Amino acid sequence: MAPIRVGLIGLSTNATASWASNAHLPYLTTSNKYSIEALCNTSVEAAQNAVKAYKLPPSTKTYGDPQDLADDPEIDLVVCSVRVDNHYKTTKPSIQAGKNVFVEWPLASNVHDAAEMAALAKEKGVKSMVALEGRVSPIYVKVKTLLQENRIGKVLNSSVVASGGTNARKSINEGLRYFLERRVGGNFLRLLWDMVMLDSIHGALGPFENTSSTLSLTRPEVDLLSPSGEVTGTVTSDTPDHIVYTGRLSHWNNAPVSIILRRGPPFKDTPGFVWSIQGETGEIRVESVGPVFQAFDLGSQMLLENYESGEVEKVDWEDKETPWKLPARDIAGLYEAFAAEEKGAYPDFEDAVGLHQELEAMWRHWDVERGL
């Protein structure tokens, strides 16, 4: 089968967050299932610089306008890896042109734009995918497998306590200022909560019902740091930095589930992520330095306690067959599922809209609490 011809938006040589080069490029440049045929950046010159910097073939086409990429008949799949407030305008032309699309999470800055993109993709018969890679992360896949094998019996409850998102409590890299801005969409709640926590746990435990949330902004004033570590200013965040979420697991007889997440590092020398799933005959416990173990190697471990024997087993969850390392490993898993056309094996735009709606309910509840 001929490789899927990719047009990549956002492979930059000067991006604050180098996700396209670190997570997408290692797979796309080594897989025989895909080939990078074109780059689209803010200008043709920027795209040409990226071709040279990343040693792509000289034949790689370069565009400075998403419409030009959408008009290219030799592109099968458009991959968008730019800041979230640019997702809608950079991918809509390709969706309109009937091209398949792969967009980073969040799908859009708001639920309205996300729903519009999903509806247009359905209308045009477009195959879509969203980078909610926790669904194919070996840790979450292993948890789901253990539950399917009935290793702990019927699930009685589950709880998560996590810290992360930024390395410091009171400051942030000035290039990541948008992480504190609700309007941009790429903030703490949408990125760390939705992608890393909520969707991944959904994938292992199934949907939640009767949910409620308490969002709080405990440190509204945040210092901006230059690359050298100097404070260049202070901004006022308008996104929550502490989240409490509860609900019931509809696939497990309405067993209770609770998730607590705060921005910043955990208590010294303690795990930044602890996930417990208690069953009738045993318990699964996942520990990690932080919650983003589908992007970084954080020394994660999985333990399983058998209540009858009292023994605790260290579970081998690693995928030893994949040749790709983090952060490319789980993105590669999505690409593989997409190429194999495994229905339901990768999240699409409709899945993304459902997650956007779940998050929107949390935003509305917080706004009501604050009288907005």
Describe this structure in words.
With 372 residues, this protein is of the alpha/beta class. It is 30% helix and 28% strand. It has nine helices and 17 strands. The strands form three sheets. Strands 9-12-13-7-14-15-16-17 form an eight-stranded mixed sheet. A six-stranded parallel sheet has the order 3-2-1-4-5-6, sandwiched between helices. A three-stranded mixed sheet has the order 8-10-11, with no helix packed on it. α4 runs parallel beside α5 and α6 packs parallel to α7.
Key features?
single chain, 372 residues, alpha/beta, eight-stranded mixed β-sheet, six-stranded parallel β-sheet
Structural class: alpha/beta
Name the helix and strand elements from N-terminus to C-terminus, one letter apiece: EHEHEHEHEHEHEEHEEEEEEEEEHH
Overall spatial form = globular
- Residue share in helix: 25-40%
Question: What is the compact description of this entry?
Answer:
This protein is an alpha/beta fold and 372 residues long. Helices cover 30% and strands 28% of the residues. The strands form three sheets. An eight-stranded mixed beta sheet has the order 9-12-13-7-14-15-16-17.
